[in-house]
């Protein structure tokens, strides 16, 4: 069914980086969600009304909210594909994150309302007229929601959509919620105690937990996250393939919606090479990475002296000192300043966020080790902007 829908409604479906293809995927999944959830709402609402079960009725209302969420998703995919304009030069793709947050808030409100209704049912319990037809409807809805979960999760992963992933998580919560309702309906007559209100609360908690998870994920994206380990490695490996690149460091990347990455990085080149030649190389890399990976990359060029034995000696000693302070630290932008009566080394140290030591303590320990060897040093502490704080740019080397 999934492949049929993709081939039928998504043209050029393999080009998932294309905004138009993403919109086609989003439109298709949203319409499927609207149709499926409204159908489930209708049959569950009838079953809940006939049986008098607040849990089944609440589950039906949850499906109606899911249909409404799919409408929001449909609108968000349309708006997020709008081209950049004067007021929004980075485009409108972050609307997708806002839409996912809206879906999460709706889910939370539905959960709160269901808890209030369920408490009333506990205080004033009533008989539930459960039939095998009702059971069949619930079992059928479970299988439909399992398919919808897989459908949204698969396509969400394919195009990197937070809205689809949120819908998949919500559908999985619905599966658990409906299963709880079914168990309640079967067990209540057997044990002679009405579980309906209690199971309604359980359903509400499932729903709210799903909403909180979705809200956290989308708020993280809105607040701003660094590049993933996979993206950092992809950028590094791409730049590394060009002859004349000696090192890579200080990668900073941020997005303005799915697949809308903007990045900057420092690239080390041989100082002995003509600066115009190195500049042409940098321009070529920037154009190529935009063309092939769709990443807006700005490269800062760092000339590095390679064939000076004294610089090599000081650099090796400095690397030993820095890694002795903490083996997660990395060294870059190393240079030796010579005077008539003094020598001074200047370098930067990158500190990952998982390092337990404070910046000041790291600076103090490195300076103390330098002074013990009678080395005058100017040190700058950098913080890594990588999401995975234990990841290091492997190509980063000064000499």
TrEMBL record:
Residue intervals of the Cation efflux protein cytoplasmic domain: 227-303
Residues covered by the Cation efflux protein transmembrane domain: 31-223
UniProt key word Transmembrane helix: yes
Pfam families, alphabetized: Cation_efflux, ZT_dimer
Main subcellular localisation: membrane
TM segment ranges: 24-43, 97-118, 130-148, 169-191, 197-215
GO cellular component, one term: membrane
Subcellular location per the Swiss-Prot or TrEMBL entry: Membrane
Domain of life, source organism: Bacteria
Keyword vocabulary terms for this entry: Membrane, Transmembrane, Transmembrane helix, Transport
Record's bilayer topology term: Multi-pass membrane protein
MF term (GO), any: monoatomic cation transmembrane transporter activity
Protein family according to the UniProt entry: Belongs to the cation diffusion facilitator (CDF) transporter (TC 2.A.4) family.
NCBIfam families xrefs: CDF
Name the record gives this protein: Cation diffusion facilitator family transporter
Taxonomic placement: Bacteria, Bacillati, Bacillota, Clostridia, Peptostreptococcales
